């Protein structure tokens, strides 16, 4: 019996403790101390200079110094050498092919792949990617080059450097020379942007480019690339359209000139497509079993070059060929400074796209192999991969898959061999073969169209962003597609906070847990108490929607109710003046107490004396959000309805305190009025007890 009595006493004590609301004491922080200490700490960290810090900075800026000493030469060199050799062999035809896309001569594509591979191996933080030519960036560079070359005849032996302003002429600089000058200037400017972004530590911007945005942009650009290569497949010599809606303009021009198709180029294109598509599919299917992909592209290039050379396709059939590809390197050349204002905007979009692609691939490989990449260091690496090669007549680069950075160096050696010895042998290579290589490599991006139904089922918002970005990039303008995609993503995030509605919560039968009444069965409500949740931050853009949604769920708009009562009071006064002999009974309670029982909607038919707002899903409040909560509380209290908050985050509590929502919260422990609670159960018990203390006996705890 003693044990039983002790057990009963413990149970009573436990019940009594459970009835008491949870009270936690906040840690007092000295005002301004954290800000000052943080500022001083950052100043000491960035302004002090020690030998260890200088060494760390050098090692961080040149990551090769960190990973090269730990490179396992015996275990990795054979695989890296084979992988680098295969990648280098594959880069040869791809570099020559993508030069067409960038409106450059083939030799400049080889230069670009060579220099970028070496520089990224020294400065890059990812151990599993190598930097090289990327189709989307080549397209963007080619559009700028064609725009600047518009109006310049291909027979001009001297080109007036546009934008220089003094009318000077550089003798001996023909159309091809000016094209690479424009491309190198765009590349230099994009690299400067990327280095500046790394200097100012803005590598975080990559998080705002979602996977659906980048995928839609790449797919839209791939459609534009595919369209731009059709003229080479058909052997048509057509200028690249400028401005917006280039896709439609190109297809219109192709259809108009379809009768001028070069049969030799068309047959060659069809044969190469029939060979490369199945073989590339075989490579993809057995890539897990193959140590390196089989270079079918190189085989096709060699066979096509031999056939064109011995068949005299250029002279006998008028087929367009690669032409003279010189050996060796050209002397370094500065960018055309006067051209930078013309290409500054284009270079910025190129810089953002190149960085986003590199960081996304770097993080993917890093996560797969268990290490981290520095986004800001990647900015430096990609920036210098554009700045330094631009002096050697290269154009913009981005990342490509690779085994390790050592294999990137091996690939650079293969490209060096081609540049010094083998390049002239590709003189007779048809441009239609290069176009086929580009088109076949677009398969991955074009396959995304088959994933649209799945994306729509998984997440309609992401699918909508993909569709909008893809359509704008392909049908309107490539650079505009990136901007529209970013804006669409931002508006979707904002739109999600606009579409949120207040939901009413019910209590589970077995424990004090509250969930949406419309989502789960068996939930119970409290007589006279309504519990609501708003699953979004409350800020200036949605605070009016929050109030409207809450009023709709409660079933009473306090503003409209006040207006109705004022009209009723005014009408009553007028009737009293007109009918003097009629005596009206004076109300026993004041107007607020008389209205203490508020009917919800017609479906529930229950009275509400108190409203509890669950703030667990409210991530932050701005000034407008705090004012909205204050207005809700005041308007309902004028009608006799108590409003309290529950489960507020610390940041939300701080915002409420700064905004003057609960000035008496610190004096609340002695039984005075409370407005904010740590749990919904505490809030419900408080308003129930408050109603009971006011004489509302219909509500039972």
TrEMBL record:
Predominant localisation class: membrane
Keyword tags: Membrane, Transmembrane, Transmembrane helix
Subcellular location: Membrane
Membrane topology: Multi-pass membrane protein
GO MF entry, a single one: secondary active sulfate transmembrane transporter activity
Segments traversing the membrane: 76-101, 128-145, 178-200, 212-234, 254-277, 298-319, 339-361, 406-427
One family name in Pfam for this protein: STAS
Taxonomic superkingdom: Eukaryota
Domain called STAS: residue spans: 519-687
CDD domains: STAS_SulP_like_sulfate_transporter
Region entry Disordered, spans: 1-20
One GO CC term, this protein: membrane
SUPFAM superfamilies for this protein: SpoIIaa-like
Family matches, as PANTHER family: SULFATE TRANSPORTER
Protein name, entry field: Solute carrier family 26 member 2
Originating organism: Scophthalmus maximus (Turbot)
Lineage start: Eukaryota, Metazoa, Chordata, Craniata, Vertebrata
């Amino acid at each position: 019996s003693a044990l039983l009595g002790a057990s009963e006493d413990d149970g009573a004590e436990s019940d009594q403790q459970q009835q008491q609301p949870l009270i936690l004491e906040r840690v007092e922080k000295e005002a301004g101390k954290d800000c000052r200490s943080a500022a001083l700490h950052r100043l000491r960290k960035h302004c002090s200079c020690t030998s260890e810090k200088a060494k760390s900075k050098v090692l961080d800026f040149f990551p090769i110094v960190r990973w090269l000493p730990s490179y396992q030469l015996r275990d990795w060199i054979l695989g890296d050498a084979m992988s680098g050799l295969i990648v280098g062999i594959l880069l040869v035809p791809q570099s020559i092919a993508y030069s067409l896309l960038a409106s450059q001569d083939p030799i400049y594509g080889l230069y670009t792949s060579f220099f970028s591979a070496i520089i990224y191996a020294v400065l890059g933080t990812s151990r599993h990617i190598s930097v090289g030519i990327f189709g989307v960036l080549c397209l963007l560079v080619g559009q700028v080059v064609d725009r600047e070359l518009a109006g310049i005849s291909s027979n001009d032996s001297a080109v007036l450097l546009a934008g220089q302003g003094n009318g000077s002429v550089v003798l001996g600089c023909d159309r091809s020379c000016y094209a690479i000058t424009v491309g190198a200037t765009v590349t230099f400017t994009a690299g400067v942007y990327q280095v500046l972004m790394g200097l100012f530590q803005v590598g975080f911007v990559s998080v705002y480019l979602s996977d659906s945005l980048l995928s839609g942009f790449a797919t839209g650009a791939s459609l534009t690339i595919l369209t731009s290569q059709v003229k080479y497949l058909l052997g048509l010599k057509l200028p690249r359209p400028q401005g917006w809606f280039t896709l439609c303009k190109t297809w219109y021009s192709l259809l108009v000139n379809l009768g001028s198709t070069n049969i030799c180029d068309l047959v060659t294109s069809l044969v190469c497509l029939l060979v490369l598509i199945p073989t590339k599919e075989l490579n993809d299917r057995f890539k897990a079993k193959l140590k390196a992909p089989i270079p079918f592209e190189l085989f096709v290039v060699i066979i096509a070059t031999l056939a064109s050379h011995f068949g005299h396709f250029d002279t006998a059939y008028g087929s367009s060929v690669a032409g003279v590809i010189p050996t060796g390197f050209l002397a370094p050349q500065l960018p055309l400074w006067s051209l930078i204002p013309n290409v500054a905007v284009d270079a910025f979009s190129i810089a953002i796209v190149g960085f986003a692609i590199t960081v996304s691939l770097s993080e993917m490989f890093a996560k797969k192999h268990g290490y981290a990449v520095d986004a800001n260091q990647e900015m430096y690496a990609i920036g210098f991969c554009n700045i330094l090669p631009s002096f050697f007549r290269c154009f913009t680069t981005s990342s490509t898959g690779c085994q390790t950075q050592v294999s990137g160096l091996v690939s650079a050696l293969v490209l060096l061999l081609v540049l010094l010895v083998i390049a002239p042998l590709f003189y007779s290579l048809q441009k239609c073969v290069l176009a086929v290589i580009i088109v076949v490599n677009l398969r991955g991006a074009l396959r995304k169209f088959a994933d649209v139904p799945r994306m729509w089922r998984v997440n309609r918002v992401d699918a909508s962003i993909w569709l909008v970005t893809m359509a704008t990039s392909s049908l309107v303008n490539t650079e505009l597609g990136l901007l529209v995609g970013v804006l669409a993503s931002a508006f979707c995030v904002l739109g999600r906070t606009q579409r949120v509605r207040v939901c009413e919560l019910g209590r589970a039968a077995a424990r004090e847990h509250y969930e949406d009444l419309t989502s789960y069965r068996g939930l119970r409500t409290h007589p006279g108490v309504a519990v609501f949740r708003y699953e979004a931050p409350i800020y200036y853009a949605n605070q009016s929607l929050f109030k409207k949604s809450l009023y709709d769920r409660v079933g009473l708009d306090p503003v409209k109710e006040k207006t109705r009562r004022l009209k009723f009071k005014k009408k009553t006064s007028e009737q009293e003046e007109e009918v003097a002999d009629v005596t009206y009974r004076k109300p026993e309670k004041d107007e607020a107490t008389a209205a203490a029982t508020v009917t919800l909607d017609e479906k529930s038919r229950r009275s509400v004396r108190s409203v509890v707002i669950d703030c667990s899903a409210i991530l932050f409040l701005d000034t407008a959000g705090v004012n909205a909560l204050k207005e809700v509380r005041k308007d309902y209290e004028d009608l006799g309805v108590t409003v309290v908050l529950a489960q507020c985050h610390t940041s939300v509590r701080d915002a409420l305190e700064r905004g003057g929502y609960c000035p008496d919260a610190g004096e609340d422990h002695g039984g005075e009025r409370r407005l904010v609670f740590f749990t919904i159960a505490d809030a419900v018990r408080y308003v129930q007890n408050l109603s009971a203390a006011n004489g509302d006996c219909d509500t039972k705890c």
